[in-house]
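Universal stress protein UspA, Geomonas paludis. Tokens?
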Amino acid sequence: MFKHILVPMDGSKLAEAALPAARFMAEKLQAQVTLFHVVEKDAPSQVHGQKHLTGPEEAQAYLQEVAHTWFQGIPKVECHVHETETELVSDSIVAHAAELGHDLVVMCSHGRGKAFHLLFGSIAQKVIAGGTLPVLITHPDEHGEPPPFCCCQILLPLDTDPEHEKGLPVVKSVARICNADLHITTVIPTYESLPPDEKVSARTLPATAARMLDLEARDASEHLDGVVRDLVAEGIHASAHVLRGAPAETIARAAEEAKIDLMVLPTHGKTGMAAFWTGSVAHGICSRSKCPLLLVPISDPTVS
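Tokens:
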């Protein structure tokens, strides 16, 4: 399980939205924490309208202040400033994590409103795509402040690809350590909620298409029931849910209704979120949900 947490900071209030989750995980997992800043070449004095660190001395003082404010009682907290100026902040984060053996990155997406609509193309997404590390992504509350973080209810959306179940060991460990309830969910579309291109191909036989989707939902329910039985046998508080509708909207709504604290999504290395079902579904989940995301790589990113 995670023993060394890397928390990239840029000095902005938005980035500090990651701190409650980092503190929670460090305490629960008895993990070491490294607060990390990369000195950016030609760094702006502001980012997202907020203060941005521009030099190593300023950055070191800031990280020390964060450590004192947020991580009292955590046995081992380090502050590290990468002083060599770089244009590729995400590459430096990935390289540092690999060099010093970090096994979890906790960071903010810097998204506003519906939280993660700026995730794609951001430093967070580049970190996900460039490494093999799990990444826990949070976002500020509606006032731009660090939100409280807990982990009592975990949601793991799965599709029918067995490959995505490779993320289960990480999810089980988090659920067990946090004594959390684990909700495993699969969404099967109805005929009405099929994407337009799929609906066109099924239009000639809509009744048959609807029946096939009903059978797929039945098979998914039987499969998830088996997964949950195994989890319960291991002492995990787990439940299975097969929902119907448009996947992204249905998952986001389920997360809100169940008051989910953490959603876990499997990723495929350098293809990042695009390999989770389809990029549109993953992006839809992220843009609709305010829930913190734990993105778990489930394959070697060097393998195409």
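The chain has a mean pLDDT of 81.
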